[in-house]
Write a structure and sequence with these properties.
With about 300 residues, the chain is mainly α. The chain has 11 helices and 4 strands. The longest helix is centred in the middle third of the chain and has 48 residues, at about 130-180. About 40% of the residues are buried.
Length: about 300
């Protein structure tokens, strides 16, 4: 447990000092490999659930194999590899950079640039978005990706080591690539999407709790309790509702997508989002991350003390 905590802390420090890898990112390579598998098993978008399940297995098994080999490395090589893989998977600095890349042009009243940059974060149609809609889309992306990219990765590493970490990141990558209700992926991507839902169930709720404790706690918990079930995604609902309540803003509502406008439930309470909501969301994620690390440190101390024969 202490080694796992040390690995997490060192990975976060490395992420803070270096940021995201700029070249030869392993997740880019994983995406390329997944594309090749999908092209072979889903030609012309005709692959069904069985083909999608086989594709998921073909992508995930080599990743787990790498994780098992890395886990067997002796000290200190195992620690070094664990830190590097955690650094690659977490992407905290990258998430903050993407958010601030939208925030700055919004503050400069450069809506065209802000629309272009938020379009790199979300799947919706960003043409014609005003400041409120841009800030809302960015904040929603930050909260949801914070759960997926940061907290779920930490959770599975702490629970199941490198195999858990890489399994989650591989499945989450497949869900991002194949988990669409389109003609091509509605059936083919279903196994990856359902597996991603299962892997994110517990960490999503711990993320929601972290957001609540790091912000306006009572409001966040109330929004989580009353609003989360209305959201389409069973895991994004608690995360987004608690995050919106913690920030004291309204999220959700009507939004334009490439296939038309979509009416979504309202989440949160308080003010309409604006440019300043974006750094507030980043700060909320960072405070929640500190709370997570404190909680892990406390659990580590308790486990180590009990392992030595008791607390006293």
């Amino acid at each position: 447990m202490a080694v796992a905590l040390l690995s997490c802390l060192l990975a976060l420090v490395l992420d803070f000092l270096v940021g995201e890898p700029r070249r030869w990112h392993p997740l880019v390579g994983l995406g390329w490999y997944a594309d090749r598998i999908e092209a072979a098993l889903n030609p012309s978008g005709r692959g069904g659930i069985l083909a999608g399940g086989l594709a998921t297995v073909l992508v995930v098994l080599p990743v787990i194999g790498v994780a098992l080999v890395a886990s067997a490395l002796p000290w200190p090589y195992g620690l070094v590899v664990a830190v590097i893989l955690l650094w690659v998977c977490i992407g905290h600095s990258s998430l903050a950079e993407h958010g601030m890349a939208v925030y700055q042009p919004l503050m400069d009243e450069d809506l065209e640039t802000a629309r272009e940059r938020v379009g790199m974060m979300v799947s919706r149609n960003t043409r014609g978005l005003d400041e409120e809609a841009i800030a809302k889309a960015t904040t929603e992306s930050l909260l949801e990706n914070g759960a997926d990219a940061i907290f779920a990765s930490l959770f599975w590493f702490l629970i199941a080591g490198l195999p858990g970490l890489l399994l989650h990141r591989a499945v989450n990558t497949l869900d991002a690539m194949w988990g669409y209700r389109s003609d091509r992926f509605n059936r083919f991507g279903r196994v990856a999407a359902r597996l991603d839902d299962a892997l994110n169930w517990a960490p999503a709720r711990l993320t929601a709790l972290g957001y609540a404790l790091a912000g306006r706690t009572r409001m966040a918990l109330r929004c989580w309790k009353t609003q989360a079930r209305a959201w389409e995604s069973p895991n994004a609902g608690p995360v987004m509702a608690a995050g919106a309540g913690a920030l004291g803003v309204w999220l959700g509502g009507r939004a334009p997508y490439h296939n038309g406008w979509r009416e979504r439930p309202l989440l949160g309470h308080g003010e309409l989002p604006d440019a300043l909501t974006i750094p507030s969301a980043i700060t909320l994620i960072q405070r929640s991350l500190v709370l997570w690390m404190l909680a892990v440190a406390i659990v580590t101390v308790l486990v180590e003390a009990l392992g030595r024969g008791g607390l006293w």
